[in-house]
Amino acid sequence: MSTPERDDPQKKKAVPGFVGSGSSSSQPSPGATGQDGMDRRVEKKVWTPKRIASIGGIAVFVCAVIYMAVFGDHSARLNVQVDRITISEVTRGPFQEFTVQRGTVLPIQTYYIDALEGGQIEEIFLEEGTMVEKGIPILKLSNPTLEQNILTQEARLFEQINNMENTRLNLENRAIRNRQELMRVELNLRETERQYEKQKVLFERGLTSQDLFESARDRYQNDQKRRSFALETVRQDSLYRINQLAALDTSARSLQRQLEHVRRPLENLTVRAPIAGQLSQLNAEIGQLMNRGRRIGQVDVLDAYKMRVGIDEFYITRITKGLKGTIEIDDEAYELTIRRVFPEVLEGQFEVDMDFVDATPQSIRRGQTEQIRLELDAPEEALLLPRGGFYQTTGGNWVFVVEGDEAIRREVRIGRQSPEYFEVLAGLSPGERVVTSSYDNYEEIDKLVLKR
Question: What are phi and psi of 387, to 5 degrees?
Answer without folding.
Answer: -65, 155
